[in-house]
Amino acid sequence: MAGISSVNSSAAESARRRAEAARVAAEQQTAAKEKPKAKPVEKVETVSAFEGPRKTGAEKLTGENAPLAAKGPLDSAPADPKARAGWWKQLSPTEQSQVVSSDPKKLGSMDGLPASVRDTANRTQLKNEIAQLSAEKSPSKDQQRQLENARAVQTQLDRVAKEAGSAQLLVYDSTFVNGEGRAAIVAGNLDTAKHVSVSVPGLNSDVRGYMDNITSDALKLHKASGTQQGEVATVAWMGYDAPGFQNVASDNAAENGAKLLAADVAGIRAARDGNQPHLTVIGHSYGSTTASIAADKNGLQADDLVLIGSPGAGSAKSVKDYDGALANGHVWSGSASRDVVSWLNGSNLPGDPLGQDPSENKFGANRFTAEAKDRGDKSNMGDHSKYYKEGSESLANLADIVTGNYGGVDRAQQRYGEHDWWKGNRVIDPEAKRAVE
């Protein structure tokens, strides 16, 4: 009996343990179903197992959240040149000083700002460069060119201030195109002048070697214009990479220069906003080709366009290729009959390298008298550089155009084509036989 009791007892205990195990398993399953899903753990970037979460800036020093990087006043400048003058005015004097000192080069290049503001910024950049480059013990070739450009600009600024009473540095970049340089100096006040002219030079022009020449032209024109027709500002624009004689027919410098010229003129317009000046662009020699292309292809915002000593008008075949007022009586041409460069155009050279002669009747410009009093008997290069000569009929006519005194301009008969059975086709210049007083 004892054996039977022991077996029964063991069986009962086994059954009890199975029932208990089943109950625990059932409870675990129920708990697993009711347990909420755990939230995903946010990954924290760490540098190492010892450093913990990455911290930057002020967090490393203070344990506080780092603020967003502060932007300077210049970072808020609008991209639209027409809006920049308003942006500048709303800056406090302290912010304006900060902008000038922090990045004068960038500020000085911003079209749409008043000329006085750009002048301050560009003069600051100029002063800094002269000081830094002069201190170089072993300057590179590029640095030497840069310093020469800077000194040339400073010399002409001082000269203009002395002779015209006021000077502004509208454009300045001493490193432009492999050290050729880029600058625009104003005789007068560009922010207030009633009449504004922009003189564009020709071949072999750069800041180092030609800034004095183009500045002389602007000063002579400023003096000749006077103040009877209102305040005048004349701009000596050495703003593009002019070609040399060896590559003048193949170089695309006129195309590239035309874009820069149009942009700088548009910047002047934007800065003046509701107080627009009467604006004249004067292109001499290859500069006339550049200016003409700017008017034909790049929307040059000029009231009058003057082409003097022109070897060709580039892409424009007649004044009708221009827009607005330029196509309706506001394109002018001055060509001395003995100026050999004024004959290097499509009517006289094969291949039409630089375009149509703007002094020919088929182009349609208003031609004015531009003969030199001391002209020779034959074509020469000397007359090519006399259009701004003091006392010349050319300079007097330029001054009348710039000041809007169109009735005072002495008109000249246009050149015209003629066919001769013995000599073939040729161009006749009536000015060649006119007596010059």
TrEMBL record:
<feature type="region of interest" description="Disordered">
    <location>
        <begin position="1"/>
        <end position="120"/>
    </location>
</feature>
<feature type="domain" description="DUF1023">
    <location>
        <begin position="179"/>
        <end position="342"/>
    </location>
</feature>
<feature type="compositionally biased region" description="Polar residues">
    <location>
        <begin position="91"/>
        <end position="101"/>
    </location>
</feature>
<feature type="compositionally biased region" description="Basic and acidic residues">
    <location>
        <begin position="32"/>
        <end position="45"/>
    </location>
</feature>
<dbReference type="InterPro" id="IPR010427">
    <property type="entry name" value="DUF1023"/>
</dbReference>
<dbReference type="Pfam" id="PF06259">
    <property type="entry name" value="Abhydrolase_8"/>
</dbReference>
<feature type="compositionally biased region" description="Low complexity">
    <location>
        <begin position="1"/>
        <end position="13"/>
    </location>
</feature>
<feature type="compositionally biased region" description="Basic and acidic residues">
    <location>
        <begin position="52"/>
        <end position="62"/>
    </location>
</feature>
<dbReference type="InterPro" id="IPR029058">
    <property type="entry name" value="AB_hydrolase_fold"/>
</dbReference>
<protein>
    <recommendedName>
        <fullName>DUF1023 domain-containing protein</fullName>
    </recommendedName>
</protein>
<feature type="compositionally biased region" description="Low complexity">
    <location>
        <begin position="22"/>
        <end position="31"/>
    </location>
</feature>
